[in-house]
Amino acid sequence: MKNDRLYSVLLAPIVSEKSTMLAEKHNQVAFRVLPSATKQEVKAAVEALFKVQVESVSILNRKGKTKRFGRFTGSRGSVRKAYVSLKPGQEINFLQEAS
Questions:
Q1: Which residues contact 3 (CB under 8 A, 6 or more apart)?
Q2: Contact residues for 23 (Cβ-Cβ < 8 A; gap 6+)
Q3: CA separation for the pair 30, 33 (Å, rounded)
Q4: What CA–CA distance (Å, rounded) separates 8 from 38?
Q5: Dmax over Cα atoms in the chain, in whole Å?
Q6: pLDDT for position 8
Q7: Helix (H) or strand (E) holding 13
Q8: pTM listed for this prediction
Q9: Could you give the angle at the alpha carbon of 47 between the alpha carbons of 87 and 32, nearest 5°?
Q10: 28-70 pLDDT per residue, tens
């Protein structure tokens, strides 16, 4: 896989209560990814960017909600998420990676 494609696959980490709980209990990290990203691309991108070993990748698609604003209707964007399970002893610390 090309390096420029790998660097663009991961859009952002998901930092929420649920993702923090997953990181502590199951050694998983959540990312927003491109709509066209595959499990193999996500695995390669995480291993290349964060220098960790990935055990498995689960991907889900969340459809955007339809919302009303008065008489106008619109919709939120659809999101593709990847839950990455790291091998035992591996971890990603986003605070440390940013500095």
A1: 48
A2: 29, 91
A3: 10
A4: 12
A5: 53
A6: 93
A7: strand 10-13
A8: 0.85
A9: 95
A10: 999 999 999 999 999 999 999 999 999 999 999 999 999 999 9
**79-86, strands of its sheet edge to edge:** 10-13, 28-33, 79-86, 54-62
Tell me the chain's radius of gyration from C-alpha atoms.
Answer: 15
What are the chain's domains?
3-63+78-89 (3.30.70.330)
Which residues lie across from 68 on neighbouring strands? 73
What region does 26 belong to: left with phi over 0, alpha with psi -120 to 50, or beta?
A: alpha
Can you read off the two tokens belonging to residue 90? 């591996």
Q: Is 87 helix (H, G, I), strand (E, B) or coil?
A: coil
Position 66, amino acid: T
Query: How many beta carbons lie within 10 A of that of residue 75, not counting itself?
Result: 10
Indicate if the pLDDT at residue 97 is higher than 80: no
